């Protein structure tokens, strides 16, 4: 029955209005674990991790070109107890290693402040990204140690450093500075902004995710916790997006 319903949902998606870039806040792992009776909430992260590759397969089948997945915020790195943070980072690096496997078509990019991560974690993530260079599959951005405000601050810092090297004065930069100059230095530089942002777990907020890039995105909030997120939920989100009239602030 689910297969039939999934095919029906897919057929209802307007081919001319499919999202190119989908971003996801995969929330609710810990709450799912408690609800499922697990004594260790890290088990929720482990089960949620198995959904990532499935999600990418669903997105690829629907013609999505870019997927950005929010796995860990910069606040998580300082706010989570060590006994939860260490296994969480190990789970994330294992997921990224798997996505970089030779059997996978994805091209990976880490979006976040790698300098905030433990050195061994940052190295593993960077090595995994390098292994996917030259692949022709869907672009997958993995947001680790990510914060929207931090991203904008980093972009401005890079912009100022670039112009300082070129000998541009602050006054000259102020006369020409526009939004495109900042966008060129974001973690997602060179990519289109997300058309659709999905958040699981029933929370209706972005938590600083892609603050700059999501200015004109469409949002879809799902009650299911991330480990329970199904292909039917994904297809409903894409179908709903395809029938909306995007206004882009007008």
From TrEMBL:
| Keywords for the protein's UniProt record, in alphabetical order | Magnesium, Metal-binding, Transferase
Q: Catalytic residues?
A: 27, 76
Q: Name one GO molecular function term.
A: Z-farnesyl diphosphate synthase activity
The protein depicted here goes by the name Isoprenyl transferase
A Gene Ontology biological process noted in the UniProt record is: polyprenol biosynthetic process
Q: What is its EC number?
A: 2.5.1.-
Organism, by scientific name, is Tamaricihabitans halophyticus
Show the HAMAP family listed in the entry: ISPT
**What does the note under cofactor report?**
Binds 2 magnesium ions per subunit.
């Amino acid at each position: 029955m689910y297969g039939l319903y999934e095919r029906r949902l897919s057929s209802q998606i307007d081919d001319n209005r499919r999202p190119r870039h989908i971003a996801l806040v995969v929330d609710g792992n810990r709450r799912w674990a408690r609800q499922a009776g697990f004594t260790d909430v890290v088990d929720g992260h482990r089960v949620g991790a198995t959904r990532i590759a499935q999600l990418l397969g669903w997105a690829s089948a629907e013609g999505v070109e870019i997927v950005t997945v929010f796995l860990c915020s910069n606040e998580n790195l300082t706010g989570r107890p060590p006994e939860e943070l260490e296994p969480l980072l190990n789970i994330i690096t294992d997921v990224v290693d798997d996505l970089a496997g030779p059997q996978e078509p994805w091209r990976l990019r880490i979006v976040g402040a790698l300098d905030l991560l433990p050195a061994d974690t940052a190295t593993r993530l960077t090595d995994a990204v390098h292994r996917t260079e030259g692949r022709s599959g869907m672009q997958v951005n993995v947001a680790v140690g990510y914060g929207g405000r931090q991203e904008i601050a980093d972009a401005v810092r890079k912009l100022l450093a670039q112009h300082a090297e070129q000998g541009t004065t602050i006054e000259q930069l102020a006369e020409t500075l526009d939004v495109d100059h900042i966008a060129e230095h974001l973690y997602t530089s060179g990519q289109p902004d997300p058309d659709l942002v999905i958040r699981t777990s029933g929370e209706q907020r972005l938590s600083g995710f892609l603050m700059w890039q999501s200015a004109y995105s469409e949002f879809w909030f799902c009650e299911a916790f991330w480990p329970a997120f199904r292909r039917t939920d994904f297809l409903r989100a894409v179908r709903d997006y395809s029938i909306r009239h995007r206004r882009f602030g007008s």
